[in-house]
Structures are given as structure tokens and as C-alpha cells.
Write a structure and sequence with these properties.
- By secondary structure, the chain is an alpha/beta fold.
- The chain has one domain (55-207): Vaccinia Virus protein VP39 (Rossmann fold).
- The protein has helices at residues 4-16, 22-30, 62-73, 91-97, 110-123, 159-163, and strands spanning 51-54, 57-59, 79-85, 100-107, 128-132, 145-150, 165-181, 184-195, 198-207.
- It has a seven-stranded mixed sheet.
- Strand 4 (100-107), helix 5 (110-123) and strand 5 form a beta-alpha-beta unit.
- Helix 1 (4-16) packs antiparallel against helix 2 (22-30).
Length: 217
């Protein structure tokens, strides 16, 4: 269940679900998701489902990782510099590392970040840069970014993140608790594109993410 054939089957399922970006599918196929979860759950690594990673956090289902990555890239095959808010297990950043020249990822929960750093190091992902900080503030010293991905739900996208987005770039985020479904909050997955005149919003689909919290843990 941790073999390349398992990853290839997952990619086939993602293609059936509408993921079309070739580079995104290749990145999913190349990223060993089983290394980003507890060994006890490795048999579920290539199922299209979210899984717990401890401390009240989850690793997103592969479809959502692929969908957000595809939306971030748009028509581009590769981006230069992107910011991820919410490192979590590190899986999404690892996928982005194959799609972007540089990935800057911020995490507020220190034990998760330490673990993710070890994974990045063991996989030789030298283009992923990490920071222990409140993600709502972004990473100002590295701005502007050619793309920003928020992997936790927020009532509104923090203004600091919008201002760190380059003109013409996209921000992907789950926004607003629309309703509760089976005890889980459901949000809108939004694409926000910055133009010379402001910000344009496009809704993709409903998603369910853990909340974006302030401060450090």
C-alpha cells in the first residue's frame, strides 16, 4: 500500500475526479504520502481521504491537495515563490516543492513543524523554507509571493496575506463557515486574484478545514 503503483492508482482516481494539470498529477505521483503520516496508518496513505496527524490537525485528502495546487498554478506550469500558511504534516509543501522554485511555509504548532522539517530534510527538499510563526501575518520579509495557499479555514482572508500577494498572483483559501455537516464546518474554497485595481474572487467548491487560529502553540 506504500508502493509507486499505489500512488499511480491514486493519480488515476484524481484524474477521474477532474484534476487535469499534468504537473500536479506528476507531483502527486512522485510524493510519498505514507511518509507524512503515522506508520500505523500507512495502509491508508493512498486512499483519497483526510487522516489525523495529531494535535487536532489533519493531512488533507489528496484530491484537495491536488485541487488547491492546480488552482494556485492556473495556466502556469511552475511558479517561482509561493507561501503556504499551515505546514501541518508537510505533505502539501512537499507537493508544492515539485511545482515551485521556492516554497515558504509557516506553522504555529511547533511539534508539527519540527516533524515536518525532519521529513523535508530526509527527502532532500532543499527548496522548502519553514518558519514557526502566526500564519495570519504571512512572511513579510519574503513578500511579494507568486502564489499563497492557506490550508486552514478563516472567516475572512487576513489583510496581511492579501498585501503580500504579487499583482497577477493567486491566493487559495477556505473562507467562511457556511454550515455544519456531520459535525464539521463547511467553507467555500476561494481563488483570489490580485490585479492592479484590487482583488477578484472566484468560488471553486465547498470544503472542510480546521480553523486558522492566532498565536503560537
Amino acid at each position: 500500500m506504500t508502493s509507486q503503483s499505489s500512488r499511480d492508482r491514486l493519480v488515476s482516481r484524481l484524474r477521474e475526479q477532474g484534476i487535469r494539470h499534468a504537473a500536479v498529477l506528476e507531483a502527486i505521483a512522485a510524493t510519498p504520502r505514507h511518509l507524512f503520516i503515522d506508520e500505523a496508518m500507512s495502509s491508508h496513505a493512498y486512499e483519497n481521504t483526510s487522516l489525523p496527524i495529531g494535535l487536532g490537525q489533519t493531512i488533507s485528502q489528496p484530491y484537495i491537495v491536488a485541487r488547491m495546487s492546480e488552482a494556485l498554478l492556473g495556466a502556469a506550469d511552475r511558479l517561482d515563490k509561493v507561501l503556504e500558511i499551515g505546514t501541518g504534516s508537510g505533505y502539501q509543501a512537499a507537493v508544492l516543492s515539485l511545482l515551485c522554485q521556492r516554497v515558504f511555509t509557516v506553522e504555529r504548532i511547533e511539534p508539527l513543524l519540527r516533524q515536518a522539517r525532519r521529513r523535508f530534510h530526509s527527502l532532500g527538499l532543499h527548496n522548502v523554507f519553514t518558519r514557526y510563526a502566526d500564519g495570519q501575518n504571512g512572511w513579510l520579509s519574503q513578500a511579494p509571493f507568486d502564489g499563497i495557499m492557506v490550508t486552514a479555514a478563516c472567516p475572512e482572508v487576513p489583510e496581511a496575506l492579501l498585501q503580500q500577494l504579487a499583482v497577477g498572483a493567486r491566493l487559495i483559501a477556505p473562507v467562511n463557515a457556511l454550515r455544519r455537516l456531520d459535525q464539521a464546518s463547511v467553507q467555500e474554497l476561494l481563488v483570489i486574484t490580485r490585479s492592479e485595481d484590487g482583488f477578484e474572487r472566484q468560488q471553486l467548491e465547498d470544503v472542510s478545514f480546521v480553523p486558522l487560529l492566532p498565536g503560537l502553540a
